């Protein structure tokens, strides 16, 4: 009897030790935002898992159901029963692709994160190419739909124009920011917070943080099921988001440079117009009320003062943001011979 009790006790201890041991880190995390793609999920899972199984690496597939109104969630659950690597994050309502990408990144555990569309236009067979390119030392590998199978003018032409504008403004030159098929090192994207339509700008964020970014051509297939969720209104959203991204890069730490600079320029205009108004009155005998100069002087003066005050307010908000979250205004890649120092950022 005592021997049996000892065996049970030893078994319980071994179970506790096994449960306490850290789980092996996953090598790959595949993130798939899904919105009303019930017809594509079965084919996607079949092709994706075939590729992932051939790679011979530990992996997980995180499908983020972005408030689908069809049977997407039910189909995902059916496949998750068959493949434990398939994990599901389901939103209460539709929040958009950027939010879905952010949720996938937050719930991922892999050393390398791969994003993929659910509409079968991205080819899972291109994933090994992205990983091979990352093995050359790149932190971000972006797909380029060189032979894009979409409407020539409404999608392709507009996309090319948008990509050129984004590349010029950001300084990160890619042919195809809109391609979801990308691979990232875990430490590059984990600290990024995404809003609006900013998921396409992840390579820009990564490059600004010192990551090595490259682009390779990938296959692109025509949509078989459903219809595209994007329209031309997306262009205006992208432009506005790009303005935000550029602001965060240049002025997020010192917003007074932007607001204060605009304020000082307004005050300079007010000063010049005021002196010119006085000169016209004294030298030319022109009544002030006969010109728009009094209104221009007053308006630019008020705008200048308000801009400077907004810059001061933004400075206080920035300091509150960094100090409340114990963040720093710099990022450390690595350290040598330093003990008990966490990587900043």
What can you see in these coordinates?
Helix content is about 50%, strand content about 10%. The protein contains eleven helices and seven strands. The chain has about 350 residues and is α/β, with parallel strands linked by helices. The N terminus and C terminus are likely disordered. Strands 3-2-1-4-6-5-7 form a seven-stranded mixed β-sheet, with helices on both faces. Helix 10 runs antiparallel to helix 11. The chain is elongated. The protein has two domains: about 220 residues, Alpha-Beta Complex (Spore Coat Polysaccharide Biosynthesis Protein SpsA, Chain A), CATH 3.90.550; about 70 residues.
Helix percentage range = 40-55%
The named CATH superfamily of the largest domain:
Spore Coat Polysaccharide Biosynthesis Protein SpsA, Chain A
Annotated CATH topology of the largest domain = Spore Coat Polysaccharide Biosynthesis Protein SpsA, Chain A
Please summarize the sheet with the most strands: 7 strands, mixed
What structural class do you assign from the helix and strand content? alpha/beta
Order of helices and strands: HEHEHEHEHEHEHHEHHH
Would you state the CATH class of the largest domain?
Answer: Alpha Beta
Q: Kindly report how far apart the N and C termini lie.
A: 58 Å
Order of strands in the sheet with the most strands? 3-2-1-4-6-5-7
How many distinct folded domains? 2
């Amino acid at each position: 009897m005592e021997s049996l009790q000892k065996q049970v006790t030893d078994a319980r201890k071994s179970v506790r030790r096994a449960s306490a041991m850290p789980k092996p880190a996953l090598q790959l995390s595949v993130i798939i935002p899904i919105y009303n793609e019930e017809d594509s999920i079965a084919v996607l899972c079949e092709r994706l898992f075939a590729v992932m199984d051939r790679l011979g690496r530990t992996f997980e597939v995180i499908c983020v159901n972005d408030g689908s109104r069809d049977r997407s969630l039910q189909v995902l659950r059916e496949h998750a029963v068959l493949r434990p690597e398939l994990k599901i994050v389901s939103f209460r309502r539709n929040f958009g692709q950027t939010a879905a990408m952010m949720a996938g990144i937050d719930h991922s555990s892999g050393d390398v994160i791969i994003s993929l569309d659910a509409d079968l236009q991205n080819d899972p067979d291109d994933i090994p190419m992205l990983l091979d390119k990352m093995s050359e030392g790149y932190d971000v590998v972006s797909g380029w739909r060189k032979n894009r199978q979409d409407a020539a003018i409404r999608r392709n032409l507009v996309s090319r124009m948008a990509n050129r504008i984004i590349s010029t403004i950001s300084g990160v030159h890619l042919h195809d920011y809109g391609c979801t098929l990308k691979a990232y090192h875990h430490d590059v994207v984990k600290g990024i917070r995404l809003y609006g339509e900013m998921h396409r700008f992840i390579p820009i964020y990564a490059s600004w943080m010192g990551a090595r970014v490259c682009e390779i051509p990938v296959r692109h297939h025509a949509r078989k099921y459903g219809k595209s969720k994007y329209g031309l209104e997306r262009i205006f959203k992208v432009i506005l988001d790009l303005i935000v991204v550029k602001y965060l890069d240049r002025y997020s730490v010192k917003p007074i440079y932007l607001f204060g600079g605009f304020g000082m320029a307004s005050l300079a205009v007010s000063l010049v117009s005021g002196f010119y108004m006085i000169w016209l009155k004294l030298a030319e005998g022109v009544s002030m009320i006969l010109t728009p100069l009094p209104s221009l002087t007053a308006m630019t003066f008020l705008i200048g003062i308000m801009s400077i005050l907004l810059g001061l307010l933004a400075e206080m908000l920035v300091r509150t943001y960094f100090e409340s979250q114990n963040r720093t205004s710099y990022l450390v890649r690595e350290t040598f011979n330093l003990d008990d120092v966490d990587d900043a950022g």
